[in-house]
Amino acid sequence: MNSIKYSDTTKTTSGFSLMELLVALAIVGILATVAYPSYQDSVRKANRSEAIAELQAILAAQERFFLTNRTYTTNLQELGYPEDDDLDNYDLEAATCQDDGDDEANAVILCVEVTASADTDNQRVDGDIVMNSLGRSELVEAGTNTPKKQL
Q: In what order do the strands lie in the sheet with 128-132?
């Protein structure tokens, strides 16, 4: 009788099993779910800081304009800003302050208000930024004048 011998060699494989890949993917998904809102909040705060710096520069230019002309301007081009000087996430504009009892003619002489209106969905969550020459500096609900936070 002839006997056939079979070799008892074990095959070694390298790599990951499907289960290991699924577990790793689940962990990455959970971490991304937790980290993404925090990242979005940081982006909103950075955009807000950029807008605040720009509004402060506009108010400084308004004060220089006032010293020369004895009035503020609602036209940012008169301050040396280009016609389309909006930020990536905000639209910038200047207007007269709307205080009770002030008429429109005196308001432009006594007070100017600059606004950075959020123009992206991500920034609308944060709100608009309003500053004026009398010291108002607030974060307000987007599209309204309802204060959210003093800046």
A: 90-96, 112-118, 128-132, 137-140, 147-150
Is 0.85 topped by the overall pTM? Answer: no
What sign does the dihedral 74-77-82-84 (CA atoms) show? positive
Query: Over its length of 151 residues, how does the chain's per-residue pLDDT go in tens digits?
Result: 566 666 656 666 678 889 999 999 999 999 999 999 999 999 999 999 999 999 999 999 999 999 998 888 888 888 888 877 678 888 898 888 875 455 555 544 678 899 999 888 888 888 999 999 888 899 999 888 888 888 8
Give the domains, in start order, of the chain with CATH numbers.
18-150 (3.30.700.10)
Collapsed DSSP state (helix, strand, coil) of residue 85: coil
